[in-house]
Design a protein that fits this description.
With 131 residues, this protein is an all-beta fold. It has one domain (4-129). The chain has no helices and ten strands. Strands 1-10-9-6-7-8 form a six-stranded mixed sheet, with no helix packed on it. Strands 2, 3, 4 and 5 form a four-stranded antiparallel sheet that branches. β7 and β8 form a beta hairpin. It starts with a strand and ends with a strand. The structure holds zinc ion (ZN). Zinc ion binds next to loops.
C-alpha cells in the first residue's frame, strides 16, 4: 500500500476526501491559502472549516495552452460549494462547451498525479460532473 500525500495542504485524504478552508473567526470569510490576516476584515484568527464536497460550476475557462508537460485542453473552473468558492479543474469530462456548462452539479474527485522514488503517491483534486 503506497503512502499518499495531498498535492495541496487544504486537501484531506481518506475514505471521504474533502477540502478544508481557513475560516476567519470574525467574519466567516474562507481562504484556501495560508494567510496572516483576513482579506475582508483584517481579523487574524482562523479555524479549519470543511467544505461541502459537492457544488455547482459558476464559471469556467477552457485552457488550450499551458506549460510543457501539462496536458491541454483542460477546464479551469470556479465551483460554488454551498457558499464557498473553490477554484479547481473540471475533470472526468470532455473539455468542451457541449459537456461543460455553467450551473452543472459537480463533486470533488481525487486522482494520482505521480509517484516519487520512495513510492509516495501525490494526490491532486478536481471536480467531476455528477451524472
Ligand atoms: Zn474576516
Amino acid at each position: 500500500m503506497p503512502s499518499q500525500v495531498p498535492l495541496v495542504e487544504y486537501l484531506e485524504l481518506g475514505d471521504d476526501p474533502r477540502l478544508v478552508a481557513n475560516e476567519c473567526t470574525q467574519c466567516g470569510a474562507r481562504f484556501f491559502d495560508r494567510r496572516n490576516a483576513c482579506a475582508s476584515c483584517f481579523g487574524t484568527s482562523f479555524k479549519k472549516a470543511p467544505v461541502e464536497p459537492t457544488g455547482e460550476l459558476r464559471a469556467f475557462t477552457i485552457v488550450s495552452f499551458a506549460a510543457p508537460g501539462i496536458p491541454v485542453p483542460f477546464v479551469a473552473g470556479v465551483i460554488d460549494c454551498a457558499g464557498t468558492s473553490v477554484r479547481a479543474n473540471v475533470i472526468n469530462c470532455p473539455p468542451d462547451p457541449e459537456h461543460v456548462k455553467v450551473g452543472m452539479k459537480v463533486r470533488l474527485a481525487t486522482y494520482p498525479i505521480g509517484t516519487d522514488d520512495d513510492g509516495t503517491e501525490a494526490i491532486g483534486f478536481g471536480f467531476e460532473p455528477i451524472s
